[in-house]
Automatic annotation (TrEMBL):
GO terms for biological process: glycerol metabolic process; lipid metabolic process. This is glycerophosphodiester phosphodiesterase. InterPro entries: GP_PDE_dom (IPR030395), PLC-like_Pdiesterase_TIM-brl (IPR017946). Keywords: Glycerol metabolism, Glycoprotein, Hydrolase, Membrane, Signal, Transmembrane, Transmembrane helix. The lineage of its organism: Eukaryota, Viridiplantae, Streptophyta, Embryophyta, Tracheophyta. It comes from the Eukaryota. GO terms for molecular function: glycerophosphodiester phosphodiesterase activity. It catalyses: a sn-glycero-3-phosphodiester + H2O = an alcohol + sn-glycerol 3-phosphate + H(+).
Length: 758
């Protein structure tokens, strides 16, 4: 079994507000405004199965974590099932095989029952005594995207065990009373006679008959809540669709004090996964005297595109608008919901940034719009970015423009349009592509931008499909002009492939960028020059106070003693991957901090971490599938100098919140790196991968840049244009004059030859 108490001591010490020691977290001061809930209090967080987003549901560990990691009131929700000898256990699905290992322990004991008109096959609690289940069966994660490392380590939990932990609020969910009654087991008798309602604050059920029965027995302090299932599902007592029952809220008030509804009942989502206008359900229910609890919240689920993969955005959607502010939220990730209420359900994000950490974009707000487009940069400014970036590429005719890569196939429609110009260029990348330096600027302008979703095909996490081809690419000069007119602190110019362009394409990236920067006159702005080539950075040494950043694209495990001194010859800072600062194992758990940041800071070298993304599939389990929790860990635990992010709004909200202050009563504290991994049995972990290599002097110094080699022009030899603009084409009059002159010269030469022969 997992050493639960030891794990709790490890995690709780870094997850509570400052209180001088252990115990309950410091409660926030009363809110300055009355909440638009029915009670006037902040929405209640209902932890479905405890912290079931990380641990198997309703286990001791899941329940304890849900109660400890909180700044608001939290109710533990236990979905009640009855064993053959009428003992209550906490398992959400009536089929135990979905959340326990019972099918492995008793492979021949599955049964099929008719439940609410459907044949359901599985292993059911009612067919086993409590002793058989408690002594033989262990819990497992019921959702495959969640960590399986805790499977088979934690026992099934009884109601008595949950009550013994003395949760401030206990919520019993009884979903299958009719089924148990048909099998001579009574949920109402168990709650009344065995449990005696002791410690039970809420009882919910989707069955009207059960709630009417409990109305006669339950004390006044126990709230009865009617749970709505899908709109087309049929309620077992009155045989009506739940959508029809919803039309008469006053009738519900006769047997319940509140309702639980799927979150889509309040904010509908259309077939394209975008929010529609909210319904009037919350306002109507409040008018009828019913509390409203929204269900279905999970950080690791595909949520509406409107939320940009940020679970806090979704929580705020249900608590920041008076007409749709719910009385409670049922979630598998209760700590993040609690943070949303305590830290972000105000206008504090309008404050000045609380720390110096820079928010630097990666291709603008490329999580919202196609990267490096005018729309992505506009959104980045709106979202509070400090520094906006341009990865400079050159067209065949020397136009400098912003694009993530010289290969245009990922971020534009280049491949179907210019498939005939695709090529394999090992000096640039290992895969075939359509490259900007093989296309003229006119050809590039004919392309459409394309939204890039790094995890789309693998996980279904597609970014903002409505903006898939919106926006237009910007030249470097246009980008710099845009930055000068906006409230940003500076710009980051990323330079790659300069050596190849000079030697093979006759294009001078360094000169082009230098001239564009000087022409833009960014005297009052911070200019950062980033490159993975130290020879490129050496060309900008001392230039107008530019900050030079050496980019290490591959993860690094350590920094050798001499490396920082060598880096300082070329750069003022480094850009490193997230896993170069916090090592993550194959199972997506954090393992340890490297010495990279410590050694760089000791040498007065700034450290910027890339690339921060909101998609839960990119976030290690230690951060609770929450991008804000990951940001907090890099700020507090490591003190990075800046984030390079595709979702600047998420970083901006956190860095402007009072909860970024570790001395405040309420703070989003970092995960303790490696704490979860230490408590997982080695047999449950995947094989270790070899560590990334350390950075040494030899990995820093690149060969000098080659001279720009002239490339024979195709067709007419037109003079080159100014940097950042297409080469001018000759006028038609000049072309005619040139051709006429050439003909005259040819005839004169021919006449001379003939006269010499005679």
């Amino acid at each position: 079994m997992i050493r639960c108490l030891f794990l709790m001591s490890l995690l709780v010490q870094v997850s509570l507000a400052k209180s001088g020691g252990g115990g309950e977290p410091v409660k926030p001061a009363p809110p300055p405004r009355k909440w638009p809930t029915l009670s006037g209090l902040p929405p209640l967080i209902v932890a479905r199965g405890g912290f079931s987003g990380l641990f198997p549901e309703s286990t001791t560990l899941a329940n304890n974590m849900a109660l400890q990691l909180r700044y608001t009131d939290v109710a533990l929700l236990c979905s009640l099932q009855l064993t053959k000898d009428s003992i209550g256990i906490c398992v959400t699905d009536i089929r135990l095989d979905n959340s326990t290992n019972i099918a492995e322990i008793f492979p021949k004991d599955s049964k099929t029952y008719k439940i609410n008109g459907h044949d359901v096959k599985g292993w059911f609690a009612k067919d086993f005594t409590s002793q058989v289940i408690l002594n033989n069966v262990s819990m497992v994660q019921s959702i495959l995207s969640r960590p399986s490392a805790f499977d088979n380590q934690l026992a099934v939990t009884t109601i008595d065990e949950v009550r013994a932990s003395r949760p401030p609020l206990l919520w019993l969910n009884v979903q299958y009373d009719a089924f148990y009654s048909a099998n001579k087991l009574s949920m109402s008798d168990y709650i009344e006679k065995t449990v005696g309602f002791q410690g039970i604050s809420y009882i919910s059920s989707p069955e009207i008959g059960f709630l009417k029965n409990m109305k006669k027995k339950a004390p006044r302090e126990t709230n009865l809540i009617f749970t709505f299932l899908g709109p087309d599902e049929v309620e077992p007592t009155e045989k009506k669709k739940y959508s029809d029952i919803l039309k008469d809220l006053n009738a519900i008030k006769a047997f319940a004090s509140g309702i639980v509804v799927p979150k889509e009942f309040i904010w509908p989502v259309n077939a394209d996964n975008y929010l529609e206008k909210p319904t009037t359900l919350v306002a109507d229910a409040h008018k009828a005297g019913l509390e409203v609890y929204a269900s279905g919240f999970a950080n690791d689920a595909i949520i509406s595109h409107n939320y940009s993969f940020d679970p806090t955005n979704e929580f705020l959607q249900f608590i920041n608008y008076p007409d749709v502010t719910v009385d409670g939220l049922l979630t598998d990730f209760s700590p993040i919901a609690s943070n949303a209420i305590a830290c972000f359900a105000t206008n504090e994000t309008q404050r000045e940034k609380q720390v110096k950490t820079l928010i630097i974009t990666h291709n603008g707000a490329s999580g919202i719009y196609p990267g490096c487009t005018d729309l992505a940069y506009e959104q980045a400014v709106t979202d509070g970015a400090d520094v906006i970036d341009c990865s400079v590429q050159l067209s065949k005719d020397g136009v400098a423009f912003c694009s993530d890569s010289a290969d245009l196939t990922g971020d534009t429609t280049a491949m179907p349009t210019f498939m005939s110009k695709s090529a394999l260029i090992p000096e640039v990348q290992k895969d075939k592509g359509v490259f900007s330096f093989d296309l003229t600027w006119t050809e590039i302008q004919s392309l459409k931008p394309q939204m890039f979703s790094p995890f789309g095909q693998r996980t279904g996490c597609y970014r903002n499909p409505a903006a898939k081809n919106k926006g237009k690419l910007m030249t470097l000069s246009d980008f710099l002009g845009f930055a000068k007119t906006k409230a940003v602190q500076g710009v980051l110019i990323n330079i790659e492939n300069a050596a190849y362009l000079a030697s093979k394409k006759g294009l001078d990236m360094i000169d082009t960028v230098n001239k564009a920067l000087k022409k833009a006159s960014l005297d009052k702005m911070q200019v950062m020059i980033q490159s993975d080539d130290s020879s490129v950075l050496s060309k900008f040494k001392g230039d107008q106070g530019y900050q030079r950043l050496l980019h290490f694209k591959q993860p690094i495990s350590a920094v050798t003693k001499l490396a920082p001194g060598e880096i300082k010859k070329y750069a003022d800072g480094v850009v490193v991957t997230r896993s170069s600062l916090i090592v993550v194992n194959e199972g997506s758990f954090t393992k340890a901090k490297t010495n990279v940041l410590k050694e760089m800071h000791a040498a007065n070298i700034s450290v910027y971490v890339t690339t921060m993304r909101n998609e839960f599939v990119a976030i290690p389990f230690d951060f609770y599938a929450d991008p804000t929790m990951e940001l907090a860990t890099f700020v507090v635990e490591l003190d990075v100098d800046g984030f390079i992010t595709e979702f600047p709004a998420t970083a901006n909200r956190y860095l402007r919140s009072s909860c970024v202050d570790m001395n405040a009563e309420i703070a989003i504290l970092p995960a303790q790196v490696g704490a979860l991994l230490e408590e997982i049995p080695e047999s449950s972990l995947p094989p270790e991968r070899p560590p990334s290599p350390p950075i040494d002097v030899k990995d820093i110094v690149d060969p000098p840049l080659p001279p720009v080699t002239a490339v024979p022009a195709e067709g007419s030899k037109s003079p080159p244009g100014p940097p950042g603009a297409p080469a001018p084409a000759p006028s038609s009059g000049m072309a005619v004059a040139a051709n006429f002159g050439a003909c005259v010269a040819a005839f004169m030469a021919l006449g001379l030859l003939l006269s010499m022969e005679h």
